[in-house]
Amino acid sequence: MLCLYTAEAAFLPPVQAAGTQRATPRAREVFLGFSNKLFDDLQGASSRAAEKERLLLEPNSRPMRPPSEKRANSGRGFGAGASSKNANKGARKRPRKADSKDTGASNNGKVTEAENYVHALHELRKRTLTESGVVMLPQALAGETARALREEVIEEIAEAREAVRHDPAVSTSRFHVPVEQPTRAFTLLPFLRTRSDSVDPPTAAPPNGPILRAVQELLGPRAPLGKLFGSMCDGDDSVLYDFYALRTEPGSLRQQIHSDTPHQKVPPLFAAFIALQDVSIEMGPTVFLPGTHTRTSQRLQFDHGVYNGGRDEMLAAAKSEYGLLKSGDLVLFDMRTLHAGNANLVDGGSTRYFLCITFRNTKANAVDLGHVPCIRPGFVDKFTLGDIHEQLELSAPFSFVGDGLPVSPAIV
């Protein structure tokens, strides 16, 4: 989730001290001219480094695939890396008793074949995520929901821009940064949109809008993604950390390989990127380096090989996977995993929208998570996975939580 600022946002002058003289327009012009030059130089260097990384990775890169469902059908639910000892151990287990919370079993406590399959597929995905740091889930979001949500996001971006036009100070609570970046930007989302801006009074939110439908399909008690978040983090106590739409436009540059959170023993953050349209190679699919979420020799070579050629050697040998997702597909990853967004090409590319959801593991060290919550200010540390389940059981979910935006001071 590497965020690029515009030049003005990245190099704004320090806040004016009390009693000091305000900078003249000419001084600001000179400052911004220098800032733009510095920003362009930094961006150029980053772009050249990212292109070098792309060329190193390309020979061993392939499209990402979901775990083979044949393994789930076998009843074992283990990933490709499972040893025969562990696999046989799993095969000898007696059928477990039904757990209505994660299977919905109701046949006098007996687990049906379909329920066993759902459980085995969950275990397979969980093991893949544990071992590789990344897993793909196809069709996690219904096609119609993805299409409606994409349109909703486009409307939300237009509304946010209008609000910022009236009051630039609200940009951070809308776009996560002081100035929206033109080709790659976040838009912080509400659970319910009210079709409002800074001038007109809000209108009533629809009872079941696209954002709410997406939350239900993705994070409901029996939703595969919600179950994985709970398993990988802290169950119902897992905390919603990021909730935003990611937009990339043609002309968006390739990112350098990075991780979104520093290494610690307990994985602190897991993020899902949900495609709201088909993602072609020209649109810049995210590339992941599976297995780099832990301190293997491969990861250490990347971290400490900047100046001795070790990083280039590691990237040239690494097997990477990129997400050519269909609308409604998602990638869930441990945010310690190395990854990068590819360039959205001017020729053949088009605007790409993702819904992005991150949960925090409360058992991990929260002192340094790598980035502040990318979520509306009023929602920071507000919802656990269990809270979301409770809201979704209500007749009007999230109707009393507000829009998450700061309350504007009353004008007297």
UniProtKB/TrEMBL annotation:
Residues 54-114 are annotated as: Disordered. It holds the Pfam family PhyH. InterPro entries: Fungal_Metabolite_Diox, Phytyl_CoA_dOase-like. PANTHER family: PHYTANOYL-COA DIOXYGENASE FAMILY PROTEIN (AFU_ORTHOLOGUE AFUA_2G03330). This is Uncharacterized protein. The lineage of its organism: Eukaryota, Haptista, Haptophyta, Prymnesiophyceae, Coccolithales.
